[in-house]
Specification:
Layout lengths: L2 H15 L3 E2 L4 E2 L5 E2 L2 E2 L1 H6 L1 H14 L2 H6 L2 E5 L2 H16 L8 E8 L3 E3 L2 H7 L4 E3 L8 H12 L2
Parallel strand pairs: 5-6, 5-8
Antiparallel strand pairs: 1-4, 2-3, 6-7
Helix pairs in contact: 1-3, 3-5
Length: 154
């Protein structure tokens, strides 16, 4: 088993141990969809050390080029922003001190269009490489909207 597979197996075990990942059940997602697996983001963020470990595992399996090239880590509120903030801090701590510090940019909720990026954060992402993360992906509409906002911001 290679390192990536080991990290994946450890993460799956830890997520189940902390009751973040629930498997082999019947879950009603409240949007008309049902499934056998449920990721409980509330359990994920209940203990900060859980999200830190999970973020470290994600960074360890992401392609090195993505980690090296990212200048901003962004995520939608609530869970995605918490994960993005944690990952930005961890990425910053792994970089050489001569590199510019990592920037964190949270997306906010906009009643009209779902996600929004404030004018301040639009300036922060402009002309930079952005890694967008989220805690849960269902339909990927949130991620698609966040990508659209970053591209629109330059």
């Amino acid at each position: 088993m290679n390192r990536r597979e080991q990290i994946r197996e450890k993460a799956l075990t830890d997520l189940q141990k902390h009751e973040v990942l629930m498997r082999d059940g019947h879950f009603d997602f409240g949007n008309g969809y049902h499934g056998r697996v449920y990721l409980n983001p509330h359990q994920l963020f209940r203990h900060p050390s859980t999200i830190w470990r999970f973020a470290q595992d994600l960074l360890d399996i992401l392609p090195g080029t993505i980690v090296e090239q990212a200048e901003v880590v962004a995520g939608p509120v609530m869970g995605g922003a918490l994960l993005a903030h944690t990952m930005a801090g961890l990425m910053d701590s792994r970089q050489h001190l001569s590199r510019p510090r990592m920037i964190f940019a949270p997306f906010s909720v906009d009643a009209a269009c779902g996600q929004a990026l404030s004018r301040f954060y639009q300036e922060q992402v402009k002309g930079r490489r952005v890694l967008i993360v989220d805690d849960v992906r269902n339909t990927a509409q949130t991620l698609a909207r966040c990508v659209e906002l970053v591209r629109a911001g330059g």
